[in-house]
């Protein structure tokens, strides 16, 4: 970790403490650290990542702000968790809709097969007298296999 980053971090912590009127002793108590540790941090001493996170949370900023002087683009962890839970719920709802559609599709496919079987069993004279719309390319009549009914 570079000394410049640590020095900048100490300055940012000190600035935030001043803005929020938080003493070294109060910050130390909040973080469960000694006042001497806080003094070391303010002087640019090294901080463990867990302490950076805890200090940032106590001062209402992100660890990126303490480390680099800029706020991260990502939302706080609790918002990320909430978004992930919402996405999970949406995925479950979509899965249920897909299951319902699949069930309906299965029913329609079964009904189509039954209709084609009925059409295959009709005499040729009945099929020849069917309206032109039933003989269109999309009609089940034209999806019949190669049968002996020639047109």
Residue share in helices? 55-70%
Average of the residue pLDDT scores:
83
Number of strands: 0
Order of helices and strands: HHHHHHH
- How many separate domains? 2
Q: Strand pairing plus helix content: what structural class?
A: mainly alpha
Question: Over the alpha carbons, how many angstroms does the gyration radius reach?
Answer: 36 Å
Layout: helices, strands, pairs:
Blueprint: H1 3-20, H2 24-31, H3 35-42, H4 49-59, H5 63-68, H6 77-120, H7 124-128
Keywords for this entry:
mainly alpha; 434 Repressor (Amino-terminal Domain); 2 domains; 0% strand; disordered C terminus
Summarize the structure in words:
The protein has two domains: 3-68, lambda repressor-like DNA-binding domains (434 Repressor (Amino-terminal Domain), Orthogonal Bundle); 77-143. The chain is 66% helix and 0% strand. It has helices spanning 3-20, 24-31, 35-42, 49-59, 63-68, 77-120, 124-128. α2 packs across α3 (35-42). The radius of gyration is 36 Å and the shape is rod-shaped. Mean pLDDT is 83; it is low at 145-151.
């Amino acid at each position: 970790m570079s000394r410049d980053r640590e020095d900048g971090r100490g300055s940012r912590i000190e600035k935030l403490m001043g803005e929020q009127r938080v003493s070294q002793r109060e910050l130390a108590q909040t973080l469960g650290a000694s006042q001497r540790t806080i003094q070391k941090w303010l002087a640019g001493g090294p901080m463990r990542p867990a302490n950076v996170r805890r200090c940032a949370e106590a001062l209402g900023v992100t660890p990126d702000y303490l480390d680099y002087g800029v706020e991260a683009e990502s939302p706080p962890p609790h918002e990320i968790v909430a978004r992930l839970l919402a996405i999970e719920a949406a995925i479950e709802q979509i899965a249920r809709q897909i299951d319902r559609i699949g069930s309906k599709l299965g029913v329609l496919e079964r009904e189509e097969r039954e209709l084609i079987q009925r059409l295959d069993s009709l005499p040729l004279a009945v099929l020849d007298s069917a309206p032109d719309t039933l003989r269109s390319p999309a009609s089940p009549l034209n999806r019949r296999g190669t049968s002996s009914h020639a047109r």
